[in-house]
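Figure 6 in text form: structure in, sequence out.
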């Protein structure tokens, strides 16, 4: 009886249940082709169709966890694209449900007294996960899961477990590593370096095994993104690369040398030459946030993401998924402002793809890149002020 009362009187449980029911209805009634939409599910399926295993028999542009997951789903689906679509959609929907829960747990630690605001955040995030197709067109939600798990484990001082989830996140997509910037202020440089070595070992072991099994394809997979060139950024506009970051036809995956070749224009401003100013800004932000105060942690992580995205020669619209929970977790802004920022970022992402790129409106391609870049700069400045102001108040 107490359990029933808890369920019916707890709005959070209603949010989880509504999300789950809606996703079940989608699986039952929405055609798989509609679920695939204009995202990368078809691409994941086509990669899995290649005989053999990723990193061993062909190269892929992703860290190892995702392509091996695709291959597993492909085998379970017995090579049928519609079944693969349903399996992937069901899996990523479950991941997003867990992400909502992990978001709630992290927010409870950062903003423990704001239960009503937290419920509004969860409702808003759930609606977003239900209607924003990027949450199921791509696999980035899995990396977001590892990021949120890491943040929660850091909040409860379980740094070894946090390092494990962080490492799994890196093996899914690089970006969860940015969650580790708060370790410098939490446990100091020495302990952070020890955990860094521990995490590096976790990441390197499967990579080294794959290199030993198939050196050519494993190294090609690792180098593919680095060798690609610039795309969809202000650096791409400078280089004259007015295209997406997609790779060539699938037959190229059987030739390791193709991973090192690019049809993109070479960089006029090498990425390494502009790395130092971004590192200096990041170092100054970490230095200013050395006070052990949780209110500066999320802005610091968000600033690190923004610095990387501004420096990176490439950009993919689905990377917005990493920014959304961090924006909503930031304690220094009103919920209304957070929601406006998130909605605008979603608008930018959908405007970029599928509208501007999909319809090949070339005249608007530079506009959306400049608009996104400018907005990220403003967001970075806002977060930097938040970090510095908290430091000043504490002093």
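Output sequence:
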């Amino acid at each position: 009886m107490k359990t029933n009362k808890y369920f019916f009187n707890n709005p959070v449980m209603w949010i989880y249940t509504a999300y789950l029911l809606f996703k079940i209805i989608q699986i039952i009634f929405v055609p798989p082709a509609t679920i695939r939409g204009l995202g990368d599910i078809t691409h994941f399926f086509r990669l899995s169709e290649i005989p053999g295993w990723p990193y061993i028999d062909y190269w892929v542009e992703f860290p190892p966890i995702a392509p091996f997951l695709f291959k597993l789903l492909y085998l379970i689906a017995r090579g049928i694209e519609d079944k693969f679509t349903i399996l992937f959609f069901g899996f990523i929907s479950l991941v997003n449900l867990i992400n909502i829960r992990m978001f709630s747990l992290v927010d409870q630690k950062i903003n423990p007294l704001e239960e009503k605001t937290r419920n509004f955040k969860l409702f808003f995030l759930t609606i977003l996960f239900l209607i924003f197709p990027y949450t199921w067109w791509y696999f980035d939600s899995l990396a977001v899961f590892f990021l949120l798990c890491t943040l929660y484990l850091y909040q409860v001082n379980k740094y070894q477990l946090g390092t494990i989830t962080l490492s799994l996140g890196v093996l899914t997509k690089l970006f969860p590593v940015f969650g580790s910037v708060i370790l410098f202020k939490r446990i100091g440089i020495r302990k952070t370096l020890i955990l860094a070595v521990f995490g590096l070992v976790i990441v390197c072991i499967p990579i080294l095994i794959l290199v030993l099994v198939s050196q050519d394809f494993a190294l090609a997979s690792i180098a593919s993104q680095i060798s690609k060139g610039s795309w969809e950024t202000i650096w791409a506009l400078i280089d004259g690369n007015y295209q997406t970051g997609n790779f060539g036809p699938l037959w190229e995956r059987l030739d390791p040398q193709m991973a090192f070749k690019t049809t993109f224009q070479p960089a006029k401003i090498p990425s390494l030459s502009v790395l130092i100013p971004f590192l200096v800004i990041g170092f100054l932000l970490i230095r200013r946030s050395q006070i052990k105060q949780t209110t500066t942690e999320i802005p610091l992580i968000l600033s690190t993401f923004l610095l990387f995205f501004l420096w990176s020669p490439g950009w993919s619209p689905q990377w917005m998924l990493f920014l959304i929970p961090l924006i909503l977790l930031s304690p220094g802004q009103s919920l209304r402002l957070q929601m406006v920022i998130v909605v605008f970022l979603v608008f930018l992402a959908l405007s970029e793809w599928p509208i501007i790129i999909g319809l090949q409106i070339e005249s608007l391609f530079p506009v959306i890149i400049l608009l996104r870049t400018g907005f990220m700069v403003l967001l970075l400045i806002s977060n930097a002020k938040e970090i510095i102001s908290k430091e000043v108040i504490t002093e």
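Caption detail: The radius of gyration is 21 Å.
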